[in-house]
Design brief:
By secondary structure, the chain is an alpha/beta fold. 35% of the residues lie in helices and 23% in strands. It folds into two domains: 102 residues, Urease, subunit C, domain 1, CATH 2.30.40; 276 residues, TIM Barrel. Strands 5, 6, 7, 8, 9, 10, 11, 12 and 13 form a nine-stranded parallel beta sheet that branches. Strands 3-2-1-4-14-15-16 form a seven-stranded mixed beta sheet, with no helix packed on it. It binds N-(iminomethyl)-L-glutamic acid and fe (iii) ion.
Length: 388
């Protein structure tokens, strides 16, 4: 049984309030013991046990690995020209997804896997140790199955998003496409997917269509989550709460009724500030949700259209500057919040028995993640107890 001690940690964020101060469970001058890929001891450095191997964190801060709970990584080609046009004044619309659907359908399995692997590694090197991946650029039975088959090779957190947009061959026949999803796709993608998601928004699927799809998915054993209110205020948040979604994501628009519904539910509110950044949209005031007591997560939404980044420190910096998170709330939301959005209790915190997924920063405090935006502050990333 191999044991590794990480010592000389100036500030350890455990996200376990029973282990240290505040919601972040902060321990100063801390140490960690890793055994068989898991944390087996956490506490003050002076009482740390010895291990076969010792890692010196040299007075740096250690945080849990980021849990990035919302991504679209199975696609081909980028949409740099669309981004450029947007920066010249064009608006973002759901319609751009069709460009990526065409490129993805004509790509080989190897190319799709290579691209998604590249992005997972990019995220891992910036501290993301758990990643969710959606389908949604295939939109045929065959292409959705192969997207999820590829996603499953990279993560257990796979999401069927056949209801991303209505594909061109079903234009004007949206209800027929909804039927294809409910009658054929769901049963055939089931072996490859844990979650089911719908883009419930202006230009995508209506609340009624989304309800039908989520309920059919639930009946087949898939767990619901939802893209809601990215482009316009609608009933997406209410629908998410109604079907018991693990999370409602984007929520760039919300009202007081939405806050009340979320407060009373177990549904997590996931904010994606890099999407607001890349679509030059107004940032929602997440502080209102947090102060009302809603559980909040942060994710990157990596995709070639609305948010082409895998970098969670960038997401944290945006959330703090533009959505009124405190640095503490942003770090918690990008780690523990993401874990709750994926209904996982083994990641997002550093407690005895949790996965030994953590990041040694180059600075002595996590505050620098927002305070020094755009600077690589990731010194070492550890996943399953191994340095990557
Ligand atoms: O989460 N909102 C819907 N889907 C993606 C965008 C996909 C695209 O533009 O290609 C998102 O932002
Ligand atoms: Fe998304």
């Amino acid at each position: 049984m191999s044991q590794t001690v990480v010592k000389n940690i100036s500030l350890l964020v455990t996200n376990n309030p029973s282990l240290g101060k505040t919601e972040l469970g902060l321990i100063e001058n801390a140490a960690l013991l890793i055994e068989d890929g898991k944390i087996s001891w956490v506490g003050a450095g002076e009482s740390a046990p010895t291990g076969e191997k010792t890692i010196d964190a040299a007075g740096k801060a250690v945080i849990p690995g980021f849990v990035d709970s919302h991504n679209h990584l199975i696609f081909a080609k980028d949409r740099a020209a669309e981004f450029s046009a947007r920066m010249k004044g064009e608006a973002y619309s759901a319609g751009g997804i069709a460009t990526t659907v065409a490129a993805t359908r004509s790509a080989s399995d190897d190319d799709l896997l290579a691209n998604a692997t590249r992005l997972v590694h990019e995220g891992l090197h910036s501290g993301t140790t758990t990643v969710e991946i959606k389908s949604g650029y295939g939109l045929t039975v065959k292409d959705e199955i192969r997207s999820l088959d590829i996603a499953k090779q990279l993560t257990d957190e796979t999401t069927f998003l056949g209801a991303h947009v209505v594909p061109s061959e079903y234009q004007g026949k949206a209800d027929e496409y909804v039927e294809l999803i409910c009658e054929q796709m769901i049963t055939q993608v089931k072996p490859y997917a844990k979650w089911i998601d719908v883009f419930c928004d202006k230009g995508a699927f209506t609340t009624e269509q989304a309800r039908k799809i989520l309920l059919a998915g639930k009946a087949a054993g898939l767990l619901p989550r939802l893209h809601a209110n990215q482009l316009a205020q609608g009933d997406g948040i209410a629908l998410g709460v109604e079907v018991g979604a693990a999370s409602v994501d984007h929520i760039s628009h919300f009202n007081n009724d939405d806050i009340e519904l979320l407060k009373k539910s177990k549904t997590v509110a996931t904010f994606l500030p890099a999407a607001e950044f890349s679509t030059r949209s107004n940032y929602p005031d997440a502080r209102r949700m947090i102060e009302a007591g809603v559980t909040v997560a942060l994710a990157s939404d990596c995709n070639p259209g609305s948010s082409y980044t895998t970098n969670m420190p960038f997401v944290i910096a945006l959330a703090v500057r533009e959505m009124f998170f405190t640095p503490e709330q942003a770090l918690w939301s990008a780690t523990k919040g993401g874990a709750l959005a994926l209904q996982r209790d083994d990641v997002g915190h550093l407690s005895v028995g949790s996965r030994a997924d953590f990041v040694i920063l180059k600075e002595s405090s996590y505050i620098h993640l927002a305070y020094r935006p755009g600077v690589n502050l990731i010194d070492e990333v550890w996943q399953h107890g191994k340095r990557i």
